[in-house]
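Let's practice the habit of predicting before peeking. Look at the sequence and jot down your guess about where helices and strands might fall. Then scroll down.
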Amino acid sequence: MAGVVGLFVGKPHHPVGPDGRMALSDHLRELRARILKVALTVVVALAVSLLFFDQLFDLVYGPYEQAVARLPDQETLATTSGAGGGLMLYLKLCGFAALVVTAPVWLYQIWAFIMPGLHPHEKKWTRIFAAVATPLFAVGIWLGYVTLPKGLEILIGFNPDGITNILEFQGYLQFFTRTLLVFGIAFEIPVFVVLLNLAGVVKGRQLAEHRPWIVIGLFVFAAVATPSADPFTMTFMAVPMVVLFFIAEVIARFNDRRKERNKPFAGLSPDEASVL
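Done guessing? Here is the structure:
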């Protein structure tokens, strides 16, 4: 019995064969163990989040209430549909909360699974990426939450007088999560720009040459990506992205100069005789 349990949820290990590689069966066994750990963690978090449903509901419902308070002349009503609408609301809201809360666990399991196959310098850059990307993603989600009431106010405000806006809450929950995820992912774009520069794919000089088009592209991305599609939310997404891109360009230029200084023959004239 203990052997069966250990097979499924035992501590992941990295047995290496004579050629320095793991067998495919070991990879699959480790992957299964990590998936089960993530699944158990999410289930436990889901059970706990059900106890805090009221607080979670207030957090999600808050932007809608703020938007309604700013539209006293608009008639709007939040509803659920079907006999199981309330139950599905419970499960979807708490399920989303469980995924967010357990993000450090499943992100670590993904990273720990691929880490043995990375070179030492690649491991260093993945640690730096995780240290920078996580705070930026959190800031993006926070900014999306702050701007959400204004976006809802603009969208609901388009309803003509005398027309009642019926807001199906499960659809609103999807709108809520999509808005926050889009903001969070958008703030990761400058991090990928820096990673491409570190990998030698993009140079700082190239970023400077195409800067006007990149800025326009960021505004177009913000206009397309924001679910509310209003100018206010688009600007709140695009402006920080442009600022972060400028920072990424400065980092890329600094890294390019550092690489040039570290070259063996840096500073030598092309016409200077070789030591060979």
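How did you do? The first helix runs from residue 2 to 9.
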